[in-house]
Amino acid sequence: MKIVAADVIVSSPDRNFLTLKITTDDGVTGLGDGTLNGRELSVASYLRDHVVPLLIGRDPHRIEDTWQFLYRSAYWRRGPVTMAAIAAVDVALWDIKAKAARMPLYQLLGGASRTGVMAYGHASGRDLPELFDSIRHHLELGFRSIRVQTSVPGINAVYGVAAQHSADGKRYDYEPAQRTPLPAEEDWDTRSYMRHLPGVFEAVRHEFGPELPLLHDGHHRMTPIQAARLGKDLEPYDLFWLEDCTPAENQEALRLVRQHTTTPLAIGEVFNTVWDYQTLIREQLIDYVRSAVTHTGGITAMRKLLDFAAQYQIKSGIHGPTDISPVGMAAALHLDLAIHNFGIQEYMRHGALTDEVFRQSFTFADGYLHPGEQPGLGVELDEEAAARFPYVPAYLPFNRLQDGTVHDW
Ligand code: EZ4
Ligand code: CO
User: Fold this and answer.
1) What range does the domain containing 257 cover?
2) Which Pfam families is this protein grouped with (predicted)?
């Protein structure tokens, strides 16, 4: 078998996605996701200009060799653009291998270790009544684990709160990237946030009881000592995890947080290799690995990362926002089903237009996702539909403090 074509397809049904389609000489095709939110075209260029020419003529079955070749022959290693590009190739090759074997991908990864993949949904609200409504709505949709994000008094726009951007007041799922020519400016005050949040979790526990697994995303905004304090303050509300409590690139910060709180910690959605986790895993400073298959070099690299984590009883919490395409989501689900140290899977439903472009076979019922039994990943790209939705420039927002200082978003 030989690779005869590799097409880079950037489409924007509800938002931008970068898809790589690899075609072999016997007509088998594979899909990979390389979507890097707000920087999609850099990955498209990396692939088109520098990787596609290297793929033509290669044996698609040599996945490990192709991964090592792309990683090491570039000389310039790691980084989100490089690793998203390698991920797109890697996942497309796994799709091809599994289709050629006439098996769903999870079978090639060792077979199912569980009957379904527990997912958490995103509830949010500007105040408690709106938040409670959103939690109830997610429970009705079938979610059995819920991430809770709320507005903070005195702050106009806060990460993770759906309704705040909606002009007509209609509820919609949270989508941080905005189709604006410049990044939207949001405001932030860590002390107000830390004063407000424990009361929100107290109210949610009071309303929904002690059983429901609750999660929260701090989105890189606290200093180590602030994060330590928030973790302690949230202990009575028994969080499933506190995510990205400090800026993720400072691994040592987690030592201080860990010494002060038993609230479980999740980190790493902005990471792209196992090296970003070296201290975190070896010193058991975290409980969940948040990497996305799409941003961490694909199935090949994620498998190694999660096997490393497993030796320290650290579990998976694979990143699954809307900016991971259905292709990247399917890849995550096959991995989730197969690995032993599965923790939880983030799941934000895509919009209707995205479902037109990507025909999916994964299912969601009673709180559990399943990748389905189609050979390969189980996702087909409708290229005609994709062509109807060309790329639209979009940016993630950024934060300024009250005095105008730029802050982590
Ligand atoms: O802000 O994927 O846990 N989920 C998140 C996401 C990220 C976006 C950035 O592209 O933090 O909402
Ligand atoms: Co996050």
Assistant:
1) 109-373
2) MR_MLE_C (PF13378), MR_MLE_N (PF02746)
